[in-house]
Specification:
This protein is mostly helical. The chain has helices at 3-26, 33-71, 77-113, 115-148, 155-192.
Length: 193
Amino acid sequence: MDFWYYSLIAGVIGLVFAVYLTLKVMKESRGTKEVDEISRAIEIGAIAFLMREYKTLIWFVAIVAIVLGVALEPKGWVACAYLMGTVLSVTAGYVGMRVGTRANCRTVTAVVKSLNNGLRVAFMSGAVMGLTTVSLGLIGLSLVYIIWNGEHSDISNVMVGFGFGASSIALFARVGGGIYTKGADVGSDLVGK
């Protein structure tokens, strides 16, 4: 068995553990009605932002994929790996946002019981994003290697295409998320005055 299969298995194990942590966090109490309403409003706003950002990114991803498909050897394969990286990065971002926003009210409610409970819920929900990102990265790179290694000797370009796809989505999510957060801060300051 090739060593790439071990990394694929490790990625799957990481995803299974992320699902386990998600289920554990979701079993926690959502708290009072007021806390739940505020948490749902935050979740709706965050997911709406994320979906809008992803719709805008489709154009960027399409243009870059076409350029990579035409410009780099092996033709088309780098673009396929790039698209695979973008899809996995979008998936990781969506999962992280979903679990993070749903864990907000649960963390607040757990802190009321004890600081330790609140930290436990917060760390578990944060670990979901980390595990999902790393696991999908491992799975993606393993699949790129397994699928394309026998076909082409220039596997390094294909792997770089995968990494570029994942990184480009992460970059836009980071920059766009910072702008969204700053806008929310300014809005809350204006409402408070």
